[in-house]
Amino acid sequence: MLIAGKACLILALGTCLYGIAASLYGARSSRREWVASGRRAVYALAGTVALAFAILQAAFLRSDFSFALVASHSSTTTPAFYRATAVWSSQEGSLLLWLLLLSLWSSLILWLTRRRLREIAPYATAVLLGFGAFFASLLVFLETPFTQALPAPLEGVGLNPLLRHPSMMIHPPMLYSGYTLFAVPFAFAIGALVTRRLDANWIRSTRPFTLAAWFFLGVGVILGARWSYSELGWGGYWAWDPVENASLMPWLTGTAFLHSVMIQERRGMLKIWNVSLVLATGVLAILGTFLVRSGILDSIHAFGASTLGVPFLVLIVGMIAGSIALVASRAADLRSEHRLDSLLSRESVFLLNNLVLVALCFVIFWGTFFPLISEAFTGQEASVGPPWFDQYTVPLALILVLLSGVGPVIAWRRATAANLRRNLLKPALAGVLALGVLAALGLAREPGALLMFGLAVFVLGAVGQELWRGVRARRAMAGGGVPSALVSLVRRNRRRYGGYLVHAGVAVLFVGIAASSSFQDEREVLLSPGQSTRVGSYDVTYVKPTADLRAAPNGRLEKIDFGAELAVARDGKPVATMRTVKSYFPSSAPFVGPVSRFFEGEATSEVGLKAGWKRDVWTAIAPDTGALRTRVEEGDRVFSEARLTPAERDALLGQALGGLVRSYADDPPPATFRLIVSPMVTWIWIGALIAFAGGLIALWPAPRGMTSRVSATYAARVGREVRTPARV
Amino acid sequence: MDLLVVLVVLAVIVIVVGAPLRRRGGAGAGAGADADESAERAELEAARDAKYREIRDAELDHRTGKLSDADWRTQDRALRAEAVDILRRLDDTGYSSAAAPADDGPKG
Which pLDDT score is estimated for A724? Predict the structure, then answer.
């Protein structure tokens, strides 16, 4: 099916090019049949790419090594779950997934708007198909997943051990969904600019997609952080790595857009700002993809060096230049229809929040690209680390959390000082009280964290007060108990209360980040079995080593595990038993001895983790394999001199490695342990769950009957004013 | 087998993409004027829905204590005046309230 797969990609590229031409011709000549044909080209693209993806997926599941990609990224011993995810572990497969998701989301938005946005949609179709054509071209000409392996090997290389984690199933599709969904508002913004239809109509139609992009990208980012924390041996959830940063930047500008666009919908203001934000978000989404794939910056998460850098750079430059030209040429149409009524208004808070989010994005952008910037100016590549990022992002995050508490309690248009004072009083008192209590408990040594805790309490107080007042108002109107009033209130105002829940979740998330990064205890210590050490308030004892030689069901030697069992106690009482393992996978490089290749390949860490509401105890082992070096070299020498059949060789290798493993278990050398006690890490994940639950509430469409009924109520009310204009 | 798959995919693409072109009729000529009118109406409908949402939000802000009685009355009057203006402009485009599309959010 190699030919069929490749033909599907060529047909996909042809369909994109036809669709672009048909959409533009239909728009220019006002011929709807051509516009419809262009739209259907997107549906056809989705079908064609889905078929190509299914062919590749089936090849992975069948371990069809005539596909070079399958041979280099999977093996018969790779579990079926990971064979399914191995499709997007490669550059080629992940590009195909990108194109598939782009075509599916594009089909959905174009189907939903098939009877609306008639002027804008053809141009948006052309832009979306332009992205499709770009990715299809990469897949046809540069990184095709349908290359034949000649001759087909009997066994594949296998999936990179670092990618054998359940998150692999969901983390990349979530990130790519976020990136591709941001292409939708980008495309419609271009369409609105071209046609000068710059009112709130296109925003209304694409808003669910922007929110979905925000949701999926956010989930992808958090899943990545969680994966990093539990799988990588460095002990953190965020390293300010270029690829991590690349996923955060469009999320930040997307968040800013979701706030400021409400002002445009209501008041016709901030049109230039909003359209610039949405265009910047689209560019940043592509920039993130570029960073992962070009190899331009070093990152643990990136694919290796590739030939994709130049095409992506051309696309990004084209997107930026086109966006600037369009915005500049439409400046007159983008004038605000109203002015800000008052500085004391929710609009002002949203504007401030936008500035902070964009400043955060700029700081991250500067820090991410600093190696390239420094190389361009000084000839030397220099990078900035977490302390550099922290010095700017911490104050900005504090302001952001403060604003997320003020936003919900301030009125739209114009608030009075007296009302604002009354609404802020209780949340502010709660925040100050929390500050005082926590300072008295000795937390003042970390003023940044202390301030964050106080602000988070302020936000939770503000959101709680808003919910309570809303429930009270609902009960006054419709009666009923508190739970039913709460459900009814949220159901009828999903956007508002979903947003408030996001604010509460973000505050909780920042509490987790502040606590875990400011009050962390960390030690790196060399221990022999029976020895103990103290980290934070915990005593950790290295109880015994563990060692294992793992073979796949077909008998192929897969990895060597060296680990440890640790006993954790607090105040003399046992708290947990933790196990940590380092796994050594054989290298596939040639000219490496058969025994030493098990220590020359990829190594992964299984972290020992005791997670709790108050704190996590985290450990990772770095076994001293140097002590085995003499025996490993001896084994290599014996194998190089012996004349053995492959079967004899496999059997003897198993025995030799088994002996090595036993010797490690019987006479373990001291091992290095990284031990970390981090308070409140769990609250990062809980905060994220709360925030995403809020996002889902805001995203969930209201029952049609309810919206029609309520719209009719307001129409009737305003209609009365139409008949009696003197009252207005 | 591969060739058959390719031919079937190609045929399906041609059928799907070409269908609107085979159904060409009255849609082509004069569609531009229709599109202009429809876009203008859609814009006004979006503005109307946003205005209803503003009225609803102001009402909720008032009920939850963010707006005093006096401030809310002033704001509500202004918002309804703006809504009336939008409805009048919609009337001019042949708007019928029965045909009003659903809003994107329920009201409190």
Answer: 46
Instruction: Using pLDDT thresholds of 50, 70 and 90, give the confidence band for residue B100.
Output: very low
Bridge pairing between strands A532-535 and A521-527? unpaired
Residue A125 to residues A7, A47, A96, A122, A406: CA-CA distances in angstroms?
23, 16, 20, 5, 40
Residue-wise pLDDT tens digits, A49-105? 999 999 999 999 999 999 999 999 998 888 888 999 999 988 899 999 999 999 999
pLDDT at position A712 is 62
**More confident site: A555 or A568:** A568
Whether residue A726 is predicted with pLDDT greater than 50 in this model: the reply is no
Of B45, B38, B23, give the one whose Cα is nearest residue A119: B38
Residue A173: asked if its preceding bond is cis (omega within 30°), the reply is no
- How much is the pLDDT for A298? 64
- Report the range of poorest mean pLDDT among A414-423, B33-42, B80-89: B33-42
Place of tokens 């969680």: A226
**Minimal Cβ distance to B2: which of A1, A11, A718:** A1
Proportion of chain A above pLDDT 70, given as a percent: 94
Name every chain A residue with its beta carbon within 8 A of the beta carbon of B28.
Answer: 30-33
* Stated pTM of the model: 0.89
| B105·A707 Cβ contact <8 A | yes
A359: left (phi over 0), alpha (psi -120 to 50) or beta: alpha
User: B99 versus A261: which is more confidently predicted?
Assistant: A261
Tell me which of A267, A339, A718 to substitute to probe the interface with B (most B C-beta atoms closer than 10 Å).
A718
**In contact, A282 and A182? CB cutoff 8 Å:** yes
Question: Cα(A142)–Cα(A671) distance, rounded to whole angstroms?
Answer: 45
How far, in Å, are A89, A247, A586, A595 from residue A600 at the CA level? 22, 32, 7, 9
Which DSSP category does A148 fall into? Answer: B
Nearest to B47 among A40, A44, A200 (CB): A200
B106 contacts in A (CB within 8 Å)? 491-494, 702-703, 706-707, 710
Whether the complex's predicted ipTM is more than 0.95 is answered with no
B42 touches chain A (CB under 8 A): yes
**What's the CA gap between A44 and A453, in Å, rounded?**
52
Interface with B, mutate which of A25, A341, A412 (most B CBs under 10 A): A412
Distance from CA of B98 to the nearest CA of A (A): 9
Spatial separation of the C-alpha atoms in residues A263 and A419, rounded to whole Å = 21
| C-alpha distance across the termini of chain B, in Å | 60
CA distance to A424, A456, A461, per residue, from A402 (Å)? 11, 8, 12
CA gap A496, B107 in Å, rounded: 11
CB contact under 8 A, B42 and A201: yes
The rounded percent of chain A whose pLDDT value lies above 90 is: 61
Instruction: Render A75-100 in DSSP notation, one character per residue.
Output: -TTS-HHHHHHGGGGSHHHHHHHHHH
pLDDT at A43 over 70: yes
Interface test with A, best of B22, B34, B53 (most A CBs within 10 A): B53
CA A438, A440, A444: angle at the middle one, nearest 5?
65
Strand order in A603-606's β-sheet?
A532-535, A538-551, A557-570, A573-584, A603-606
Which residue from B6, B21, B23 is facing A4, i.e. has the nearest CB? B6
pLDDT at residue number A297:
66
The tally of CA atoms less than 13 A away on the side-chain side of residue A499 is 16
Q: What is the pLDDT of residues A431-480, one digit of tens each?
A: 999 999 999 998 989 999 999 999 999 999 999 999 999 999 989 888 88
- For A158-162, A229-233, A234-238, which range has the lowest pLDDT when averaged over its residues? A229-233
Tell which B residues from 8 to 27 touch A, by Cβ distance under 8 Å. 9-10, 12-13, 16-21, 23-24, 27
